[in-house]
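Quick one:
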Amino acid sequence: MPLHIDPHEPESWLVARVVQVLRRGGVVVLPTDTVYAFTCALSSEGGIERLYGVKGITAAKRLSILVDDIATASRFTRGITNHVFRAMKRVMPGPYTLIFQASSEVPKIMLHKRRTVGLRIPDNAIVQAVLAELGEPLLASSVRNARDEFLLDPIEIADALRGQVDLVVGGGILVNEPSTVIDLSEDTPVLVRAGKGDPAVMELLS
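Output:
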């Protein structure tokens, strides 16, 4: 069964339990402001390898980094322009994945012949509480089934992943709305995937 945490006012003792698992190199399924995601501590090489293994993917697959604020996000980029910074302040936290040129702080396993990184600042109280308690970013990838469909019910996720992950955190049944992905690694923003969020964000970033 999943570990149920209040999605509005996360219980601190339950958040601490999640963080203990992450600090040991565990893989934890967390709710976000879009869909459920596999997560591990970004500093945990073992956790990263396990996450790739559970997903059944290679390092060629792009994953995202979850952070709690723009200042932390900037550490993993080669620079955020003033214009983009102002736009991010208006829409984040929010359901957007922004792709930037990666800095040297991005784990090398994530780059794999690319020099970009996807960053998320989720508007979700559980994730924000975990990030604050953990004190470092999370590597994340959405939870899908063999048909590449998002799994949105934590009970279904716990049943499907029994023995494969260390913990599933339940934050309610989510809606099938992935994040909007925007590539800011070049001079002109590119909409990679239209998802949850305000479509006008492209105008703010342009």
